[in-house]
Amino acid sequence: SIIIPKRGTEGFLSVVGHVEGRLDLYNSGPHEVDPGDRFFADISVMASTLIYENELVIRKRVSENWRMHFVEYFEFWNDYLQKNSTQAFVFCDKKVDANLIVIAFRGTQIFEADDFITDLDFSLYEYPQMGKVHFGFLEALGLANRSNDKTSSYHLEKQDHDKPLAYHVLVKKLKHLVQVHKYAKLIVTGHSLGGALAVLFSAMLVVHEEEILVGRLMAIYTFGQPRVGDTAFAEFMNKKLNDPVPRYFRIVYSNDIVPRIPFDDDIFMYKHFGVCLYYNSLYFQQNLGETPNRNFSLKFFIPIRIIALWELLQSLVLHYRKGKEFKETKVSIICRIFGILVPGVLAHSPVNYINAVRLGPSRLNPTLNMGD
């Protein structure tokens, strides 16, 4: 008989869990604390994928497969949506004297309408200190509510809110963890919407002068992250988080549509910042000033679909060339077939980002060469 797993149990997986089936880290041996080491990119992309699952699945994977210390899973209140719609989890590389603390934000779930409401609202809110940022992302962190004219100033001051607000709860948790683990470094990460929240959360730490946490922040790793703010915000982030040492790793795969929205034009006024660590469909990595085809122009309609067909064919044979861990699930292959019709969407799959990290260079350096 067919057993249907019950939602919220260890056996229940999200759509992402059925598309991307890898359980283990690429190389879990000892590593120096170097943000450019592929190990940290891998642990970030795996955490950014795992956060799509329920708490029991996450706890088991971190503890049993990764042999690390699960700290806590969170569901946060969105005051505008009037529901818990933001998820994150925190873990450490070990329970005692940890060297690494990781926080991963969940990205957009395919069948979650509230996530699309957050993503597709392109309105901006201006912070005098750092420029304009995406209103929906602020709301997801519990830092704004467009139906309340006091907006962010109200939410920032009201730390005793009767609902769990992402920014305040996580700051409190991380402050406790860095006190317990005196030498631990912090990574903030996420895929899709989760990447945007990782960026904005880190920015707010700077704005609110959380110097202890900013000082411990080793890296921000994002995968398929949409644009978060305007030119002023981009300049603020480059100055505060990429100078003198780059701490921001923005990874973009091929024709993924999400990093190309909201549009970078005179109407939407959004800008990326930092260096784009771009991987093409052969998983060849380049450091670029901006994502190719930055606004997903329709003039690339035919080439994008040809590449999507190539990606489908490659997915069928990649494990013969690179090893069994690169064998894709049947669900992933079916998605790639339908994805030829909407290739920019399927390029956003975490499968591509895990492959990119594992097949790309062993060390990432988010700086531009003179010729780039």
Jot down its keywords.
372 residues, Rossmann fold, 8-stranded mixed β-sheet, two-stranded antiparallel sheet, 10 strands, AB_hydrolase_fold, Fungal_lipase-type, Fungal lipase-type domain-containing protein, triacylglycerol lipase activity
Low-confidence stretches: none
Measured distance between first and last alpha carbons:
58 Å
Q: How many beta strands in the DSSP annotation?
A: 10
Oligomer: single chain
Class computed from helices, strands and strand pairing = alpha/beta
Helix content: 25-40%
Q: What would you give as the CATH superfamily?
A: Alpha/Beta hydrolase fold, catalytic domain
User: What is the H/E order?
Assistant: HHHEEEHEEHHHEHHEHEEEHHHH
- The first-level CATH class is given as Alpha Beta
Principal-axes geometry comes out as globular
Describe the protein.
This is Fungal lipase-type domain-containing protein. Residues 102-264 form the Fungal lipase-type domain. One of its GO terms (molecular function) is triacylglycerol lipase activity. This protein has one domain (32-296, 352-359): 3-Layer(aba) Sandwich (Rossmann fold), CATH 3.40.50.1820. The strands form two sheets. Strands 1-2-3-6-7-8-9-10 form an eight-stranded mixed β-sheet, with helices on both faces. Strands 4-5 form a two-stranded antiparallel ribbon. The protein has helices spanning 15-19, 38-50, 55-65, 113-120, 135-140, 151-157, 166-180, 193-207, 211-216, 231-241, 301-322, 330-339, 343-346, 350-359, and strands at 69-78, 83-92, 100-105, 124-127, 131-134, 185-191, 217-223, 248-253, 276-279, 285-288. The mean pLDDT is 91. 45% of the residues are buried. By secondary structure, it is α/β, with parallel strands linked by helices. Helix 2 (38-50) packs antiparallel against helix 14 and helix 11 (301-322) runs antiparallel to helix 12 (330-339).
